[in-house]
């Protein structure tokens, strides 16, 4: 970070800190334990959690139900418990459960209560992190696209903006009553509920918003539920993130590159008593397209973990984020915005170099953590489960030749709606009420014949990547990270611009991340486009595509290709090797298994869980936006028996995004 910027941030943080200390007075006494009918509470004298009148110790692991098929929840939770971990922590993504206003989904992979019940059966307690914002490298931090409104609405997310709060109140009014029967005081496994998430990073610093959430959660779950916040231990995070009242516990997040003693010492300025909790201890780190795959060594992770378990500061509670990472299936990956205004979309894999791999296999890191828990927290360890832990079966099913096509000239067949607008700037995804996928833009009238053989196309604000076609043929792409957002194109009869939402920003002050083409579109020929037609292409049902047999002269990018492959025995985990293709999204049996971009990396193989395959014939479909193999014989993908997450960069320091 630039030195001047560091000093500026430090100065701003100090001003906030002084202002905060002027107003904040530590409570003279802490909340009394709940009534005897309550099972779980905080002892502010001994600074520990209490369960049924006894000190409760835990080591927790983050495992997100929405990043693994529901058929595999038991396997992943069993492996979590067998490691010695006795609490599972999960976020709850609002945009999964309410993808569109008043359209709720709590079935199959979204059946949260089933996930909680399985955890309970395996002897795990549950830490629920319902948001409404969750970050998590998930699209828009879990907020549904409709909470943004349109660019003209100017809604402030994660604030006391009444338009945002109305959405939150409706959603929590559906979600929280589903959780209440599973609280510890009602016989369930839920012991902790988080308020918002890393609010100190939002820079909004809206106390009435936090107060609203606390009141709303207690209204639905009752006064006995133990609430907490989680933030980084940077000064500005601790000023704005915690609630500092109403019995809401302050916790902090840090990885193995930080030391627990200075982190918790600083936290004690803001939370004078109560348990010391590291709500996110990072055994790995996240990836971005175009950057090396990130890892952390076992030695680095174990050193500070062991230091916390044996600390002289007292009992420290630790949650591994992530213990199992999983996969950003579909279009759910999020993105960051780095200090230098570089957009950083996350890949499909969320392996995270976690103790359990993306396909749920145990690693040397898993065993090292298990041994540390067994040594330093033997009271929570369960030896009986170790024999039940097994890695998955994998299989290379070989080449899948793509023999059917829906060409770009027919892509509009998949459109769910069409819009027309007047003016030089077309509508955004949010204007046309589309969450994910693509929107196709074309001029609403014929552009006059161009005198030059080559024309310059300029797009001011592509969000995020606009693929350009003239007369149905791929010309190039304009990306939001391009310093020069211009492209030389040949003279044309028809101009088509395909905008891809590559993931809304999920962290920091840049989350008001509208998608589509946000600025003017200009041609050097002097022709001014003042009318636009738009086709929404969420690609949420490839079954409706009218595929036809593939011929050599049909192989232009911007198409859907399809092939089949056989599974002759019980299905096994497999990975799709995409070496011959450039950029797009892939489907297996009409399930969106995620994006591919192998030339950008780091991820090169796409994970397909066995439970999404079937004995007999299986269908593989891909949408390729950019370039196809020159050789017709190379028009295939290959199913292999191993992942390829790309080049490795070891022991990454915890990156901060502002």
What are the main properties of this structure?
eight-stranded parallel beta barrel, disordered N terminus, six-stranded antiparallel β-sheet, 36 strands, 10 helices, alpha+beta, 658 residues
How much of the sequence lies in strands comes to 25-35%
pLDDT averaged over residues: 91
Low-pLDDT residue spans: 1-38, 648-658
What's the end-to-end separation, in Å?
11 Å
Short description:
With 658 residues, the chain is of the alpha+beta class.
Task: Report on this structure.
- With 658 residues, the protein is α+β, with helices and mostly antiparallel strands.
- Strand 2 and strand 3 form a beta hairpin.
- Helix 9 packs parallel to helix 10.
SSE order and pairing:
Blueprint: H1 3-23, E1 40-43, E2 48-51, E3 54-56, E4 59-63, H2 73-82, E5 87-91, H3 94-97, H4 112-121, E6 125-129, H5 162-179, E7 190-194, H6 207-221, E8 227-232, H7 235-240, E9 249-253, H8 260-267, E10 276-281, E11 293-295, H9 298-309, E12 316-324, E13 335-337, E14 343-345, H10 364-376, E15 398-401, E16 404-406, E17 418-422, E18 438-443, E19 454-459, E20 462-463, E21 465-470, E22 473-479, E23 486-490, E24 495-500, E25 516-517, E26 521-523, E27 531-537, E28 548-549, E29 559-567, E30 574-577, E31 584-588, E32 591-596, E33 605-608, E34 616-624, E35 636-640, E36 648-650
Helix pairs in contact: 5-6, 9-10
């Amino acid at each position: 970070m630039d030195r001047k910027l560091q000093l500026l941030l430090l100065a701003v943080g100090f001003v906030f800190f002084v202002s905060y200390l002027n107003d904040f007075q530590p409570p003279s006494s802490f909340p009394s334990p709940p009534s005897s009918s309550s099972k779980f509470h905080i002892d502010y004298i001994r600074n520990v959690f209490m369960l049924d009148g006894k000190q409760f110790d835990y080591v927790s692991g983050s495992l997100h139900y929405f990043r693994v098929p529901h058929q595999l929840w038991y396997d992943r939770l069993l492996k979590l418990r067998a490691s010695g971990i006795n609490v599972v922590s999960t976020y709850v993504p609002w945009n999964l459960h309410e993808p569109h206003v008043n359209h709720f989904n709590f079935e199959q992979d979204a059946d949260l209560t089933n996930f909680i019940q399985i955890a309970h059966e395996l002897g795990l307690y549950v830490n629920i992190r319902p948001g409404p914002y969750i970050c998590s490298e998930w699209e828009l931090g879990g907020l549904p696209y409709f909470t943004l409104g349109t660019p003209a609405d100017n809604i402030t997310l994660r604030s006391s903006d009444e338009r945002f709060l109305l959405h939150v109140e409706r959603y929590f009014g559906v979600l929280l009553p589903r959780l209440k029967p599973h609280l510890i005081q009602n016989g369930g496994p839920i012991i902790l509920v988080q308020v918002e998430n890393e609010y100190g990073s939002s820079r909004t610093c809206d106390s009435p918003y936090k107060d609203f959430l606390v009141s709303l959660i207690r209204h639905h779950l009752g006064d006995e539920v133990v609430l907490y916040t989680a933030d980084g231990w940077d000064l500005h995070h601790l000023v704005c993130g915690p609630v500092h009242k109403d019995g809401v516990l302050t916790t902090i997040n840090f990885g193995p590159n930080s030391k627990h003693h200075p982190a918790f010492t600083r936290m004690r300025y803001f939370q004078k008593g109560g348990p010391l909790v590291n709500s996110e201890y990072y055994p790995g780190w996240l990836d971005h397209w175009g950057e090396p795959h990130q890892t952390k060594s076992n030695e680095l992770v174990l050193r500070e973990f062991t230091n916390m378990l044996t600390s002289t500061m007292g009992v420290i509670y630790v949650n591994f984020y992530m213990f199992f990472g999983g996969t950003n299936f579909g279009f759910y990956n999020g993105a960051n915005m780095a200090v230098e205004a570089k957009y950083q979309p996350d890949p499909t894999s969320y392996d995270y170099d976690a103790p359990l791999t993306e396909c749920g296999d145990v690693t040397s890191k898993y065993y090292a953590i298990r041994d540390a828990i067994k040594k330093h927290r033997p009271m929570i360890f369960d030896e009986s489960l170790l024999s039940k832990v097994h890695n998955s079966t994998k299989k290379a099913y070989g080449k899948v030749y793509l023999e059917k096509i829906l060409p770009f000239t027919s892509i509009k067949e998949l459109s769910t709606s069409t819009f027309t607008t007047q003016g030089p700037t077309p509508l955004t995804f949010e204007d046309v009420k589309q969450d994910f996928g693509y929107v196709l833009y074309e001029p609403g009238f014929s552009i006059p014949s161009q005198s030059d053989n080559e024309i310059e196309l300029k797009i001011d604000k592509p969000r995020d990547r606009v693929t350009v076609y003239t007369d149905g043929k791929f010309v190039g792409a304009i990306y939001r990270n391009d310093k020069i957002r211009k492209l030389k194109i040949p003279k044309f009869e028809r101009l088509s611009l395909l905008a891809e939402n590559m993931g809304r920003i999920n962290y920091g002050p840049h989350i008001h991340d509208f998608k589509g083409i946000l600025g003017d579109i200009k041609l050097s020929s002097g022709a001014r486009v003042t009318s636009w037609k738009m086709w929404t292409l969420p690609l949420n049902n490839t079954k409706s595509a009218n595929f036809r047999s593939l011929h050599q002269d049909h192989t232009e990018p911007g198409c859907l290709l399809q092939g089949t492959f056989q599974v002759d025995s019980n299905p096994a985990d497999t990975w799709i090797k995409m070496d011959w293709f450039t950029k797009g999204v892939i489907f297996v049996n009409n399930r969106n298994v995620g994006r591919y971009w192998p030339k950008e990396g780091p991820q090169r193989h796409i994970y397909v869980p066995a439970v999404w395959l079937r004995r007999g014939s299986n269908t593989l479909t891909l949408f390729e936006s950019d370039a196809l193999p020159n050789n017709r014989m190379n028009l295939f993908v290959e199913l292999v028996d191993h992942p390829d997450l790309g080049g490795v960069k070891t022991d990454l320091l915890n990156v901060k995004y502002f």
